[in-house]
Structure formats: structure tokens, C-alpha cells
From TrEMBL:
This is Uncharacterized protein. One of its GO terms (molecular function) is pentosyltransferase activity. Residues 223-383 form the O-antigen ligase-related domain. Residues 519-675 form the Glycosyltransferase RgtA/B/C/D-like domain. GO terms for cellular component: plasma membrane. It is found in: Cell membrane. InterPro entries: LipidA_mod_glycosyltrf_83 (IPR050297), O-antigen_ligase-rel_domated (IPR007016), RgtA/B/C-like (IPR038731). Keywords: Cell membrane, Glycosyltransferase, Membrane, Transferase, Transmembrane, Transmembrane helix. PANTHER family: MANNOSYLTRANSFERASE YKCB-RELATED, UNDECAPRENYL PHOSPHATE-ALPHA-4-AMINO-4-DEOXY-L-ARABINOSE ARABINOSYL TRANSFERASE. The lineage of its organism: Bacteria, Katanobacteria. It is a multi-pass membrane protein. GO terms for biological process: lipopolysaccharide biosynthetic process; response to iron(III) ion. Its main location: membrane. The chain crosses the membrane at residues 52-72, 84-105, 111-127, 139-159, 191-210, 217-234, 240-257, 264-282, 374-395, 407-427, 433-449, 456-475, 539-559, 568-586, 592-611, 664-681, 724-745, 757-776, 782-801, 813-833.
Amino acid sequence: MSLTILLGLFTSIIFFVLAKKRLSLAVLWLAFLLPLDNRIYFSWGFDQGSPARFALLGIFGCLFFSCIRAGVKLPKWKEPVFKDVFLQILVFVWVIRLISFSVSLDLASSISYQVFFSEVVLVYILLKKCVEEEGRVFILKFFRNYILAGFLVSLYSPYQYYMYKFKDKILPGVWPLENRPVRIGSLFWDINHYGAYLSTVIPFIPYFFVRAKTAKGRVFYFLAFLICIASFGMTLSRSAIIGLSAAFLLYLILLSFKGYFKQSAIVLAAVLILVMGIIYAGDRAGLKLSYQLQKRFLSINFSYRVWDDSINAHSALAYGSWQIMEKNPILGGGYGSFNKQFRTTEISKTYFDLDPVKDAVIPPHSVWFEPLSATGLLGSAPFYIFFTLIWYFLFAKYRKAKQLSDILLTLGFISGLLAVSLSGVFYSYNMEFFYVFVFFALLYGAYKVKEPPLKLKDILALTFIVVLAGSFIFYKLDANTLIDWDEAIYAKIAKNILNGVGDPFNFVWQISKGSWFEKPPLFIWLTSLSFQLFGVNEFAARFISALSGVGSTIALYFFGKRLFKKSFLAPVLSAIVLATSVHYIFQSRNGTTDVLTSFFILCAMYTFWIARKEGKRWWLLGLFLGLTTLTKGPVAVIPVISLTVYVLSDLFLYKEKRYKIRDFFEVLAAFLIVSLPWHLVEYVRFGKDFIDSYVFYHIFERGRGIEGHSNSFWWYVIVIKVWFRHWFVVAIPALLLAVLGGFFGKAERFKKYFEEEAASLLFLVIWVIVTFFVLSVSVSKIQWYIIPIYPPLALIVGWFLSRVLTVRKWPKAVLYSGVLGVVAASSFLVYYWKDMWMLEDYNRGLKDVGQMIAENRDRYEFIPRTVPVYIYNIPSSSALFYTLRYAKVAGKADIYEMMKSTDGKAFMAITNKGSFESLKKEYVNPRVIIYAESKGFVLFGKDWKDVREQFNQQPYGTPLEIYDPYYFCEWVKFGTNTLCD
């Protein structure tokens, strides 16, 4: 038996004895073992056999024998622990992960991961028991040790740097990089994990500094803060620095909201001075810190990605997680099977080109995407609900905190959780420190909370809804190329922002046409972020819309619970109706603004209903009205008019007196704060051009019917009939009954049938009618404009179905069988009509041709970068997106000038097969040849081999390596029209 495994067993025995003496004592000492992660030092007996795991083995062994001694009866603390909804969620996730073994490609790895997650569940039980027995004092004791442990491991970082710099010795945890500063990871195996660990330590130091009773205590915590910050900086972990920076800003903002604005400003100034001082001192010492840091963190900028394989590799891993999930949206690719499942994805080729480690095991690289790839929507939905509830409890605790110490402790948990949540986008922390911190955040936030906001049945219902909606919406989301026009235009503008063509406040679609003012910015901003995360591809272009579609079903469930308080079925059925609505599925799979707009309108109506009942938080209504305006401008009149009509009805029909003038001004203030700044910036920057295009043309003129989109007033009835499909049949009697209940529900004749639901039904009926009439009054009509009507229709249909199913008292088994029957029948019909929501791949050939151009983009003999590829007689939106270089739209006269003689201008152009054949017949020129052809699209032109030598020379003086050559011409010369035209 090796010495290391003996050391591990000795650790287990020690913690067994500590746990037997007092369970909480063992957990307190566990804090010192959590950061001992480096596998060279701490793989005791087997791979990743860390000291913390041996310690937990001893603690769990003590618990097990305690149960045996009690006669196989669980101790007295079983009530608060095993009836805990959070433990129920964890067990549910554990079961789903076990079931996912059925689709795993690596059973041994799946078992290993399952053993770890079993440990995680037991850790929660352990911590829950300790908090139940000793209360908040135990949490404070643990985090005092947690900070001390972080301080001690931070002291090792300077020693590692000293040995590297002055003794020329690379210790474990040190990562030297060519032409970059060395990275230091202390006692962690992965330096980025060490950065994440410290980001959960640092936010708690201010609390203990303030609470310290002696000057020595304050000096210690001040030094601990400085040393931990210095050690954190030595990691140079981009993910951890992004996380902690955001956490620091949130910390100060929330502290300011509690009345400590002056102190927050001083702290911010002090930290900025400290950071700048360290960088300045480093530069003076010859370390060139400012240049090296700029070079490292500039890689986060999308335009520089061509030189940073690490950033691109992480995008490929994130995208790969979704590609695994898309194959099996319900159950994913199997827990622990990421390494082998990822190799089956299309994006894996790109990843291994960036990071040639085909023989290495590829672990999942995201806290948030790992559940999707491993267990699909069925396992990820409860996992996300678990974390959402933690945020809910922490912010509830923050709102109630009055004393400075309570505020600082709560902010420690909030900012620490935000830090690891953000860095967890890029890394998966299958480590004890992560789950211990997360569980303490939960136990602190939920301490002495009697009733959680969600019960197990709510969590199961939400999981079912997410699986149902997500299975349709995310199914092969990236299988088809982008659709002309809107989807491709928004994607191109979002891509341009990332590549420096225009900016977030100056949208550019085509360089030759200048600024683009057709839509407000929010959807395009979010799409740019999606591109930043997943890379520029069809999935990322549609991700925001798809997420909004699934989010709408979740919001609808919660709204239904508020509207129909006594019915569990009504909200569930409402969400099912929306999740199986063909039109909503189709538009959710399309990268356009409509579903995001519908989601914000739904949230606005929901927050109004909450504010109406509770008389507070009216600002949330203004927030969502502002977001609606920033997504699709004038469509915000739908909720505004709907709510105005309802409030008037409430006042005069039901004699309600709950509305106050100050509530209106609270809504208005929030609305203006959100929506006004962008409009002011655009007006100040572009003046009359912005007003003429955005306001007069794209609002007023579009409303009067332009671009061939005019239809009759009742046209949307036909659209709903065609696209609402099977639910349209149910919607007719449902609407009639809702009108009866809404307008006459409190009359004596109908009181016993509708009294409790009358106000809710009136609200929904007004919402539907106003939405229909506002959109129908506009002469300009397109079928997807009607999307905002589906959420209120779904609520009415869901309510109607619940009334039908409960018209008599059925046994629960019969009732739920009826619900499942509705789901099965509706899902079958949606799948049967798949051609309606999953369109043909119209532009695949165009993408193939564009890829061919991209592969030759650096060959000057093929075509100089300064010369455009022309787009002729095809929709320019997709062509501009897929032509991965400078491109221009050309008319027939332009093409004629280039084709008419053998001595004329050399060129290259894309068109469809039919147009090319016509051109060849009309303008015969033997030098015009086809370079590439795919699925009806042709890349043709004059052979560049005969072009003058000067075209092969680099026509600009800036060194190529500074810029991304991929987009150089567009980026550098936008607005000058000197090089690219």
C-alpha cells in the first residue's frame, strides 16, 4: 500500500473521529482542505483522490454508523432535512443523471461522475444538518476558516513566482507562457479554478474586517485582502477576472442602495488607484505589465480572436454542448460522456484545429452547459431552478438586511455567487469548494424561511414545460442556414458590431449604405453577445429568440398561477398550449425580434398584475415596457393600451380603488430610464437622419403599408386560424366563455361560476382584443407580427381546458391521464406539421460558396482583399452574412460593365444558377468562369491569375498581425470609401 493512500486513510480516520465528537467541528476543519487540489501533490492513492474527498469519506462513514447504531432509523433531524425541497431537487437531478447512462458513450466515466454527484448530494445533507443544529453561527465560523484557508494558499503564490523567476524552477501550479506573464495557480491543478476559488473568498473579507473586535484583527483581514487580491491577479484568469470584476461592481451598487454611496465611491476609487499603482510599479520594474495585460485581455475582444485559440476553443466547447443536446433534447448525451459525445459534433473539428489534443480527455467546460449536454432539458431544468431559487433567497435576505454587518455578509454571498456563475460559463467546477460555497449561499439565504416559493410539484411542472417547449424549439436549431431577410440582416449587423464595422450605437448592415436605423438595438446587442459566446453561426443567431420562446412558457406558468390561484391545472395547460403552438415554435426558431418582444410584453403584463395585487414594485412594469420599446419600438403600445383599458374597466366596472397617481410616475420613470438613453444618443449623434428613418419611415410609413405588406383588417384571423392550428378550434369557445366571465362574472346570475376569476378573465380578454385591433389597424401586416397575441390566448385556452377537465371531480390518476392525453395528442400534431416550423434549407449552397471564399481569403492571387465580391440578383441579406469578406450588391449594369470585354475589369460575383446562365448567354466572354457551385448558387468571375501584379501587393501600411485580416477592409476603412470601393 502506497504512502499517499495511507495518508488519505489517515485523513479519513481523523475526520471520522472529529465527526463523532461533533459533526460541525469536522466540517469546520474541512474548509482548510478544499483548496488542496493539485494532482501532483494531492492525488492520494488514485486520480483526483484529494484530501477533501478522504475527509468527507470519514465524515460520511461516521454518519452512516450513527444511523446503524440508531437501529437503521434516521436521526431526529430527518424532518427538516429530508422534507427540504432543495434536497428533493438534488435527488431528482441525481436520478435523471443516473437514467442518462442509457445514452452514454462512456459508461466508466459516467459512473465516476455519478459517484462525485452522489458526494455532492451527501454534502448538502451534511451542511443542512449542521446549520439546523447550530444556526447562523456555524456559517460564520465556517467562513472565518474559509478565509483563513484562502489566505494561506495565497501565500504560496509569491513563493512559486520567486522559484520560477529567480531559481529557474517551475513548481506544480505554475504555467509559463511564451511572450506573456507567467500564470500562478498556488495549490490548484487548474489555474482558472484557483481564480474562481479566490473569487468566493475575497467578497467575505470586508464583513470580517468590519466585525473584527481588535486592531490586530482588522490588520490581519486587511493584509489577507491584499494578499488574496495579489494572488488572484497572478492567475491572469480571464474568466475569474470577469467574474470578480462584475461581482465587485454589483457589491458596490447594492451597498450604495443601502445608503452607503459615499463609502462605495471611496472603495471604488481606492481599488482603481491600487490596481493602477501595481501596474505602474510593474512597468517601472521592467515587467511591462500594462502591455502584457493588454495583450492578454484584448483577446476577449471578438475582433482579435483570430490570434487567440483559447477563446475560440471555449466558444467551440460551449457550442458543442448545445450540439450534443440538440441530438437528444430530452436526455442529452449522458452524464459523464461529454468527451466522446463532443467528438461526434460538427464543431469538434474546429476545436481540434485550435487545440490539437485529440488523445486527451475533453472535460465539459461550463457549469451551465454541462447539464444540457449531459442530461438534456430534463436534467438541466431542475438544476437551473435550484440556482434561481438561491438568487431569490439571497436578494430577499438583502432587502431585509438593516445592519451593516448583515448587509456585508449577504453581499459576500451574492457577489461570490455572481463571480463563480459568470466564470462558470467557461469552466465546470466539479469540485467540492464550488458546491460547498453554493450550498452555504442557499442555507444562509433560506435560513428560517418557512415556506419556499416553489413546491416540488411546481418544479416538476416547470421541468415538464421546459422539456416540452425546448424539445421543439431547440431541435436541430442550427440545421438550416439563415432565412432572408430579417434574420440574416440582424445577424450580419450583430457580426459587424463585433468586428468593428459600426458600433453598438451605430448599426451598419451594408457599408455603402451607411448607418441602419430600422429597429431598436436590444435584440441585436443580445445576438452580438451570443456570437461572442458561441461563435458566429446559425445557432448563436437564433439562440436569443429560442431562449425567449422557452422563457415565455415559464413566465406563462407563473402568470397562470397568479391569475388562477385555485387551479394547478390552468397554468400548466396554458404553458402546454403555448409550447405546442406551431406559430410560436416557428418564430422562436427564427432569429428575429418578435418572440423576444412577446416575452417582454408578457412580463410587463405579469408585473402589472403583481403590482396591482401587492401595491408595490410598479417600477418592474416600467422596466419591461422599456425593454419592449428597445426591442421593437412602437409595439410597446400594445401593453400600454391594454393596461389603460383594463385600469379604466377596473375603476368603473369593479369600482377598484387600488391605483395611485404616484404608481403611474414610478412606471413612467422606470420606462424612461430604460428606453430613453439609446434614443437620445442616436438623436444627438445622427439628428435628422435618425428621425427621418427610424421615426417617420419605419414607424409612421410602415404603419400605412409599405414594401408590399398590406392586407385587410381581418387578415390576422386567417393567420391565427392557419398557425394556431388545433388550438384555434378550442380558442373559439374558450374566448366566448372568457368574455362572459370577464364582463358578467360578478353579476348575480353568473357569480358562482366566475366570481373569483372574473377580474383575471377580463384582463385576458382586453389583452387579446387590444392586441388584435392594434395590429389590425396598421395597414402593413406580416404573419409574425401577430406573435404577441399567443400568450393571452394560451392562458384563456388553458383556463378553459382546466374547467372542462374539472367539470366533475375525477380521481387524480384519471385527471392527470387526461392532461397527458392532451399533451400527447398536441405533440403528435406539432410533429406531424413539422414542415411548418422547420423550413427547407434554402441558402445552404450560398453558405458553401461563402465558405470557399473564406478558405481562400489570404490568397492574393485568388482575389485581393481590397476588391469586393459582388452579389447579383439574389437576396443580399444572407449573401452578405455568408460571404466572409468584403462584399457589395451589384446591378445588371455593373455586371455588364465587368463582363463585356476580355480586357475589362477583373471581378468575382455570386448569383443563382439561373441568373448566371442568362448572363452567359447575353454577355459571351470566354474568360468568365465558375469558381464554385453548390445547390443552385454560383461563384463566377474573371480568372485572377492574369491580374496585374500590383493587386497582389499589400495595399495598406498597417502591419497585418495587428488586425484581423478576416474583416480588415470593412473595419479599417468604414466611412472613408477610399480603399474598399
